[in-house]
Amino acid sequence: MKDTPLSNCERQFLLKTIEERKRLDGRETYDYRNIKITFGVDYGFCMVDLGKTKVMSQVSCELATPKETRPSEGMLFTTVELSPMASPAFEANKQSELLVKLNRQLERCLRTSKCFDMESLCIVSGEKVWRINVDVHVLNHDGNLMDAVSIVAITSLSHFRRPEVSIQGQEFTVHTAEERDPIPLSIYHMPISVSFAFFQQGSYLLVDPNDSEEKVMEGLLVIAMNKHREICFIQSSGGIMLLKKQVTRCSDIASVKVLEITELIQKALEKDRKARKDDDKFSFAESLPKEQITAQKLKEAPLEKMDIQETASEIINKANISPSTQGEHSPVLHAGGVGQVGEGITSSWGLEEDIEEEGEMEEKTTVKKTKRKGDVIVISDSEEEDIVVLN
């Protein structure tokens, strides 16, 4: 699938706006698009948004055998991937001209400029060193991929931490993150590329061209520089002739842009460092809002209070206190099933029903009468008589 080309009307309209020192997104000639830097939970994971252009980078390390020519230096490998998800112009598993150019420029930007100490990656000279892999994935393409790739690559390298290694003689031990804290890379400087698009044989130039502007440009100049105004590499493409004054002017503009981007990267790294320091676990549960019930924190329930005032007479009436007990003595409250102590007070244990049942049983039983006749006692009832003789 190929990208949709611009029509003649669109091409003429874009060139006309560039001649009038205007851009479709409202920027000035030397303005960059908004840059957003985010980090993941793992060290070395970084995402950069340059306007609508979005790239992702993941840095990893592994043990490897060093080169014979450089036995005490580590190795650095960079890879850029262009997937069809980023743009319909990209084809899967195909080495396009843009992909080859991005890989070469990124390698020159990081490896040739020697932005970090390669000898610090050596474990045992001539036997084991660390191999650093920088994998960059383009998620969305809207122009100026080189600048976005260089920013995300150096930011992820600055954010990455390698495992610590302890050496005893010829033996070494690689410690996990739970045993010992990982070690950051020794970054000397941050090379960042700035792209300049030229139009009408170099008569007009734009900084940070988007996808539409790249389709109508006639030449492209890429300058990689650090904040110390040291040029790491410079490359021109498109077949246009540039004057010395134009290159010098572009380098002056690049020095200002690189300083601003470097400060932005350092602020993002410092913010991430403070966040990890405040929260050692850095887990998903800690990132939840504290108002949710999953954070084990509930809001206090409001308690309604009512003022209740009762007079002493109302309390006595509710307690059913007999008039005989009201006087000088303190009132005594009667309650069912409670033993009472005091004059004129009887204890009630809730046995009134049992007493009534016993009274009914006594009425039903026959009453016996006894009579005394001399030495003879006669016990009689309504039916028969019993005679008991006393000796």
TrEMBL record:
Entry's Gene Ontology BP terms: rRNA processing
Lineage, opening ranks: Eukaryota, Metazoa, Chordata, Craniata, Vertebrata
Protein family membership: Belongs to the RNase PH family.
Protein name (record): Exosome complex component RRP45
Biased composition annotated in UniProt, kind: Acidic residues: 351-361
Region of interest (Disordered), residue spans: 321-367
GO cellular component, one term: cytoplasm
Record GO terms (molecular function): RNA binding
Coiled-coil zones: none
Range of residues in the leader sequence: none
Domain Exoribonuclease phosphorolytic: from-to ranges: 32-163, 189-255
Keywords on record: Cytoplasm, Exosome, Nucleus, RNA-binding, rRNA processing
Pfam families associated with the record: RNase_PH, RNase_PH_C
Source taxon at top rank: Eukaryota
Gene3D superfamilies: GHMP Kinase, N-terminal domain
Subcellular location: Cytoplasm; Nucleus, Nucleolus
PANTHER family (alphabetical): EXOSOME COMPLEX COMPONENT RRP45, EXOSOME COMPLEX EXONUCLEASE RIBOSOMAL RNA PROCESSING PROTEIN
